[in-house]
Amino acid sequence: MSCNLESPVQTQMAVSALDRAFANSRSETRVGRWKRLFVQTDTGCVLDVELDRGDNVHTVKRKLQVALNFPTEESSLTLGDHVLKNDLSSIRNDSPLLLTKTFMHRSSSTPCMSPTGNDLQQQRDRGCPIELLVCPSRCSRTRPLVKDVAKAIRKGVDPVPVNSGLGGAYYFRNSKGENAAIVKPNDEEPFAPNNPKGFIGKSLGQPGLKRSVRVGETGYREVAAYLLDHHNSANVPPTILVKISHPVFHINEGVCANKNVGEDGTQAVSKIASLQQFIPHDFDASDHGTSSFPVSAVHRIGILDIRIFNTDRHAGNLLVRKQTGAGNFGNQTELIPIDHGLCLPECLEDPYFEWIHWPQASVPFSEDELEYIANLDPVKDADMLRMELPMIREASLRVLILSTIFLKEATAFGLCLAEIGEMMSREFTGMEDQPSELEFVCMEARRLATEQDDSSTEHDSADEDLTQFELDSEDHEIPKEPSAHHFEFKRQHSRNQLSKLDEADEEEEEDDIEVESDAGKLACPKPVNKWLANISKLSTSLKGVSLTDKTSRQLSAGPKVVDSVKTSKSNSNDTGSQLCNWGSANDMLPPSVSFVKLADMGAETWGLFLEKFQELLPEAFRMRKCSMTVQRAKPRLGTSCQF
């Protein structure tokens, strides 16, 4: 639809009116109301809920029951990992909550939950079609964009659906009719209830396109990637989470929705969505040779991809814009990374890095890049995301912390971007994925941490009843229960090299002098992770194990999930479980094909795991360097690699 250009005075008046609408929507919450929340059903229906100070989870459910005309006693209100019990005082204003069935196995005859009245839907939908959710402290760059798009919606400038991709997406335009933002509703993701392209079949909160990323939660990750791109180093476009209403949004047949009838008779559908600034570009990386891509741009995007454990960095989501103007010579280009919905998985997956074989990825990092990496603080980043995006799950934050530690240690050791990416990537052998070098280190770190944790628990138990312990031990040998997360490896016709992992621990006690000598010979840069406890000595658990020789490794016939049995440690002290009225919703995550999962470790085990992980990294990095040296020297016989 075309639009008429306004005079500067009219434009300023419209912007001022829009500013007042934003301010009024916020002040209404402060005057006479305690806070406002957005509740989304697992079929995508979005409801506004105004809370008084006396309201709690039970009163909210009663309001929802009236609005939905459906009993909500067997439903749960969740925010990310947390199932809300009763108290709502710690929930941030404008937070999006998910109303889900308590029972994971939903009957096909379950009635759809859709509002029957206007009790919960406020008039502000008609006054302000876009509202910012959470993270208002970091939205300064996007507020003008949101105002411009909202102004265009009021003027009748219709958005344009995006035909490409598996999920629903829409180009929203500004008042001039130009593409200004791309909006992706969370209930139109692949497999979500209102996916417009036929990829349906799951409810919000269930495993999605990748089992470690749930349906309806890719938009949160889009915002997280923007928030983690400090100083806009990787050039991620500004991205925010919004509640947005428009008739263009898709609703599948049989799925109910909350529709608001406008003054013109149209029915606007409210959605929770990610909104990202549209960046004009010339093509994407799949349409252009990589030789013109700046080394610094590839490095900075790669640094971000490593930190967020991006599982979907293909050429199509790297936009390319030609550099023109004074001072630009030759075929210089600018790279813009987009589509970060499949980053920050809940467990380690097989990442995909398009840049891993580009020549730029093998160029050593610059001093500025090394300084940027050295200044990264994964714990601070995780705390920031907990504050700005409280619906991000703790398992995803642990992946962020782990990946950032890996990046910092690898660069301190002297690895380039390509080497780091290769250590994170799996190899496909036969009909199965083999664990990556990173995953092997994590598996061993988990084994060591679990054994130490179990040993500590047994020691504490023995102190409580030492006499009984001594009496029992006289007649019976107390068997040590094997770790639930311990893997046995096998190798056809020969003993697997990874069997040496168990022997190394025994040799430590027998040959302390030799261990110290070896540690001295294998000296390396000190760990840069100052937030972890000091490491007294270098672990030799991986000594003699070739992590890069993955083609000869076979996992036993047991399940791939490393932690199929949960540890006995409680998560009550976990940083992500600080609120006593919240319960864990991790049980809702179904088993996935993964070698390493981090969600079920208690706070103490998680801390031990990180310590062991950091201890094992230097040896893994040496093996990587050694293997590369051997590969380059293969034509020469008798080549060896010693340190």
UniProtKB/TrEMBL annotation:
InterPro entries assigned to the protein according to its UniProt record, in alphabetical order: P4KG1-8, PI3/4_kinase_cat_dom, Ubiquitin-like_domsf
One Pfam entry name: PI3_PI4_kinase
GO molecular function: 1-phosphatidylinositol 4-kinase activity; ATP binding
Catalytic activity, EC: 2.7.1.67
Residue spans of biased composition, Basic and acidic residues class: 477-491
Bias type Acidic residues, positions: 503-517
Superkingdom: Eukaryota
UniProt keyword terms in alphabetical order: ATP-binding, Kinase, Nucleotide-binding, Transferase
Domain PI3K/PI4K catalytic: 156-457
Annotated stretches, region: Disordered: 477-520
Stated family: Belongs to the PI3/PI4-kinase family. Type II PI4K subfamily.
Protein name: 1-phosphatidylinositol 4-kinase
